[in-house]
Specification:
about 40% helix; TIM Barrel; alpha/beta; about 15% strand; binds 6-hydroxymethylpterin-diphosphate; eight-stranded parallel beta sheet; two-stranded antiparallel sheet
């Protein structure tokens, strides 16, 4: 088999308002409506700011907009209640749906109450960084609505999942993550979620030290071999700062691009990023090279 043939073609990702073909790298542009996110907290102060940011990401090639109203920042995030989270995300979701009606929107939440309101407002995808661990009602809700779901690997709760509290692995980090993700898939499928709605995410930086994130990215093919499309969220993360010495998260763009291209080559098809343009260009060029060898 030629080197990349196993990655072509991919089945589309089904979600609540249609499907997203995965015959090229797909980008989820991040909209954090949070005062405390680790790299961009408090940046979007008004609805106009958020919409301008969305317009820019769409013009730069984002395929999906991922809206989140609760930070999981490494320095101990402060959990928010559903009312506060809804108060933050719903105006943005409603405005994006109005201005870009054909654009799939995903909601980054661990709460079914928030996911339900977002789906009612036309959101297509539920991105749950706890993979339905923290709210058991998520599975049935996503199944009933035909939502696309991102099941991300993590351990612990919102306030400690991005810390090292639960970062204990055996010799084979990827093996541990694949086993735990498989259990989350079983839970989702058991709740009625269709297999073609599921995307898996290794949870880079979540309950993982730098060495764990690197080992996982290196072995990403093992996550891909579970048979679901793979999404990675490396954007501006701490392990990139450790490798490059760049301490300001927003300056970690080049390191982010490097990690995303390496992930693409190892089977990732979806990329959650803050900086769309540099990632779009790099992933498209890397993909063209891979496709010409397939
Ligand atoms: N990372 C973050 C949040 N949501 N979702 C998925 N599927 N994968 C990820 O890796 C992921 C995610 C954390 O990053 P960010 O949104 O930039 O920061 P914060 O949690 O501080 O808002």
């Amino acid at each position: 088999m030629r080197p990349y043939a196993r990655y072509f073609p991919r089945m589309p990702w089904h979600h609540a308002t249609g499907e997203l073909s995965l015959d090229k790298p797909r980008i989820l542009g991040i909209v954090n409506v949070t005062p405390d996110s680790f790299s961009d907290g408090g940046r979007l102060r008004s609805l106009d700011d958020a919409l301008r940011h969305v317009d820019q990401m769409v013009n730069e090639g984002a395929d999906v907009i991922d809206v989140g109203g609760e930070s999981t920042r490494p320095q101990g995030a402060i959990p928010v209640n559903a009312d506060e989270e809804l108060h933050r995300v719903m105006p943005v979701i409603e405005a994006v749906r109005r201005v870009h009606p054909a654009l799939p929107v995903s909601i980054d939440t661990v709460k079914s109450e928030v996911a339900r309101a977002a789906l009612d407002a036309g959101v297509s995808i539920v991105n749950d960084v706890s993979a339905f661990r923290l709210d058991p009602a998520m599975g049935a809700l996503c199944a009933e609505r035909g939502a696309g779901v991102v099941l991300m690997h993590s351990r612990g709760g919102v306030s400690d999942m991005a810390t090292f509290t639960h970062a204990t692995y055996g010799d084979d980090v990827a093996g541990d993550v694949v086993r735990e993700l498989s259990a989350r898939v079983a839970e989702a499928v058991g709740a009625g979620v269709s297999r073609d709605c599921i995307v898996l995410d290794p949870g880079i930086g979540f309950s993982k030290r730098g060495e764990h994130s690197l080992a996982l990215l290196a072995a990403l093919g093992r996550v891909a071999s579970l048979g679901f499309p793979v999404l990675v969220g490396v954007s501006r993360k701490r392990f990139i700062g450790e490798l490059t010495g760049v301490s300001t998260p927003s300056a970690r763009v080049a390191g982010t691009v490097g990690a995303n291209v390496a992930a693409l080559e190892r089977g990732a098809r979806l990329f959650r990023v803050h900086d769309v343009k540099p990632n779009r260009d790099a992933l498209d060029v890397a993909w063209a090279i891979m496709a010409s060898a397939a």
